[in-house]
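User: Some background: our group keeps a shared notebook of sequences we're curious about, and every so often someone picks one and asks for a predicted structure to add to the entry. Today it's my turn. The entry only has the sequence so far, pasted here. Could you supply the structure so I can complete it?
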Amino acid sequence: MKKLFVLLAVVALFASCGKGDRGMVTGERGKKWHPEKPYGMTLVPGGAFIMGKSDDDIAATRNAPTKTVTVPSYYMDETEITNAEYRQFVYWTRDSLFRTNLAIMADENGALPGDDGIGEFAFLDSEGVEGEELTPWEQYVQDNYVGLGPTGYEGRKLNHDIDLIWDTEDMPDEFYAEVYDNMIIPFEEAYNGERTIDTEKIIFTYTSLDVNAAARNRDESKSRKDFIEQVPVKIYPDTTVWIRDFNYSYNEPMHNDYFYHEAYSDYPVVGVNWNQAKAFCQWRTLYHNAYRKQRNVERVNEYRLPTEAEWEYAARGGLEGATYPWGGPYAKNDRGCFLANFKPLRGDYAADQALYTVEADAYEPNEYNLYNMAGNVSEWVNSSYEAGAYEHMSSMSPVVNDASNKRKGVRGGSWKDVSYFLQVGTRDYEYQDSARSYIGFRTVQSYMGTDVTLNAATN
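Assistant: Of course. Here's the predicted structure to add to the notebook entry:
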């Protein structure tokens, strides 16, 4: 009997330890991982390149001396983020705010799910309703990304199965109408009898973690939370830039229609500052990973703004020492056609077949299939502007981003710039809280793994 007990104990030991590994260290595997190129992006194979001005420093800025640096592989948007793509972000945030306010109104008036009127939008986990507990993921999204700030209703489950009603003729009751009324501008601000959404209320709160400061922290009294900041951002583009950027110029049509109208959906979004671009990146990460979470597959890397080195490496398209993304040194092709949207011939804006911006996929892409890396709109990068940055930055995946430095890099030149700013080595900046009619952005996502590099791709 004793021998039988020992035998059973040994069997139990192997059964508890085993997944068929016979007691060997075989490694713990994660969820299924299926790498895929994100929609609208292209893979930029990592490698080394000479960063800095390829030609004489005619402006005598002395801020971009040549330096050999190496960047890992990453995905990059083929085009600048368009009005349609940014509207998706704005409308998602708007609808989240509206739906949450409706649920709060229902709760305050004792309406339950299944009741008519405002009750259709009540919290699904309302008292007396069974089986509608909030999952940890849903609570995380609710707590951090709705954008309302503290409400006392954090951790409640919203009803996403019923469509929001925007037509005032179809609103179910006075409670719904009251919530809607609080979301739009007051009567005295209406123009041509139209009351639109109050853009000041469309706020997205993104989370910022200063990894560099946390990694170098030697103060034992500080923990991870001391390096995390919640940043509320009014995310609606500033359409008034079309007026404020120009004196004595009639640009009201662009102010009125550029972001809203379907005619401009495929044009690059402008009027967004650096913080708004950062907020978009974090929303895009959240949106993508929420879908992958439902499919029980591994998360993807965060979407983010490119570093200055990543932007220039991608803009060069594999051409070493080129002046422009297409090579150079001229801004015209052999048929005399301009190769980008900028300000040619001392102000003849129409010479390049464009007055303001053009579609994000206009003109020919560079060798990495990236459109408008020169001209159209300048692009925010995730680097602070320091004139001497190239002198002290690392040669491996370099970035200089000082949180106290509010000057952030913009690269590529725009529709209102002369050709000098279109050169891939030219550096420029704008203050991070400033929005312009000529600055947009595109995003990148780090490639997971190291097997894709320019050297490997060409061997």
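Suggested note for the entry: The first strand starts at residue 41 and ends at 44. The two ends are 67 Å apart (CA to CA).
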